[in-house]
Amino acid sequence: MVEVADEAGTARIAEALAATLAPGDIIHLAGDLGAGKTAFVRHAAAALGVTEPVTSPTFAIAHRYQARDGQLVSHLDLYRSRGVTVEELADLEEYLDEAAIVFVEWPEAGVGLLPAATVQITIDDLGDDRRSIAIDRQ
After folding, report:
1. Which of 58, 78, 89, 113 has the highest CB neighbour count under 10 A?
2. Separation CA 22–CA 72 (nearest Å)
3. Other CB atoms closer than 10 Å to residue 52's CB: what's the count?
4. Strands (DSSP E) along 1-138, which ranges?
5. Are residues 77 and 71 in contact, defined by beta-carbon separation less than 8 angstroms?
6. Which of 15, 63, 2, 11 is nearest to 36 (CA)?
7. In Å, how far are 24, 70, 74, 83 from 3, measured between CA atoms?
8. SS3 122
9. For 4-57, what is each residue's pLDDT tens digit?
10. DSSP state, 128?
11. What confidence tens digit (pLDDT) does each residue in 68-80 have?
12. Minimal CA–CA distance to 13: which of 129, 132, 107?
């Protein structure tokens, strides 16, 4: 677990993690609303070579980005889901492609249906822009 003092600290952690990721990695992000999950994904995606703006897919549920080198990055946000159904999972399958690096916010909504995490990230808001970030490789 690492404590960071600001978003620049979060960016450094996200960039370091991104350097270790490969296609097929599934990254689950846990943390309260506003903890910084989307900011973490934004910085990791930028480090992976995504040049377009990375925004929260809360209402769209999923976004797909392509990095400069052709690497695919998927970003799912299941906050609005009370529990992913088999039918909903079918709609998300294209984002879970094994050729992509996949970030999933609020993965607990898909327990039992989503692919298992290869990396589990937990972010806790400590106040005053400070965050505690725990990264666990599965």
Report:
1. 78
2. 10
3. 11
4. 2-4, 26-30, 62-66, 72-77, 100-105, 119-127, 130-137
5. no
6. 11
7. 28, 33, 26, 31
8. strand
9. 999 999 999 999 999 999 999 999 999 999 999 999 999 999 999 999 999 887
10. T
11. 899 999 999 998 8
12. 132
Exposed / middle / buried, residue 88 (Cβ in 10 Å: 0-12, 13-18, 19+): middle
Long-range contacts (CB closer than 8 Å, 24 or more residues apart) made by 59-63: 61/92, 62/92, 62/95
Report, in this order, helix, strand and coil percent for the chain, each rounded to 5: 30, 30, 40
Question: How much is the pTM?
Answer: 0.94
* Beta partners for residue 134, in sequence order: 122
